[in-house]
Amino acid sequence: MLSKLRTWIPLVVATTVLCGLVYLAVQQDYRQSANDPQIQVSEDLSRALSTGEDIAKLVPTETVDLSTSLATFMIVYDDSGQIVASTAKLDGATPTLPSGVLDFVKTHGQERLTWQPKTGVRSATVVTRFVGKSSGYVLAGRSLREVEKREEQLLAQISLAWVAAILATLATTLVFVPRHKKPHEY
Asked: Which UniProt keywords are present, listed alphabetically (predicted)?
């Protein structure tokens, strides 16, 4: 039995590592892909504002309730970090961005972050700096609710696959790995 266990344990480790890597790769793809629409909105709006286009024509007037909507929202900040325009609302007001984000963007040009302005409200956000006829920052965001549901489903699927693989390796080991004979049995 000990020889079977010695064969099975490395299979368990390999299966666990493989399942973990699959989960990590797919989860990161889900999360990073959640940024794609906001990257476009943030960069396009920044480009337009840097050329002096009228903000009133670029930012819609309808608001997005961050606690319930899956729609993309935008917040435009002036160079000093004051809100100039916003479609984002949470509890009736535009939520406050964590301190330091705009300072980072001022230095690096763009930041992609998961923003949680309130427990249970998480958004994939992209903040882009613009400089030109006017200067400031554009934040574009969208709820992570559906992405996080997919991540939960993925975890359940990978966990089930892991259990099935562990049981399959156990059964295979028990059936196909020969029992080592003790010296007196030869």
From this structure: Membrane, Transmembrane, Transmembrane helix
List pLDDT tens digits, range 9-37. Answer: 999 999 999 999 999 999 999 999 999 99
Q: Which amino acid is at 143?
A: S
Q: What separation in angstroms does the CA of 27 have from each of 11, 31, 127? A: 24, 6, 22
Torsion of CA 68, 73, 56, 50, to 10 degrees: 170
Three-class DSSP category at 26: helix
Q: How many domains, in total, are found in the chain?
A: 2
> Using CA of residue 156, residue 38, residue 142, residue 120, what is the dihedral sign?
positive
State pLDDT tens for residues 75-131.
999 999 999 999 999 999 999 999 999 999 999 999 999 999 999 999 999 999 999
Under a CB-based contact definition with an 8 Å cutoff, are residues 112 and 35 in contact?
A: yes
Check: CB of residue 143 under 8 Å from CB of residue 122. Answer: yes
Are 153 and 112 found together in one domain?
A: no
pTM: 0.84
| 142 touches 124 (CB < 8 A) | yes
Which domain, by its residues, includes 172?
Answer: 2-27+149-181
Distance in Å from the first CA to the final CA of the chain: 17
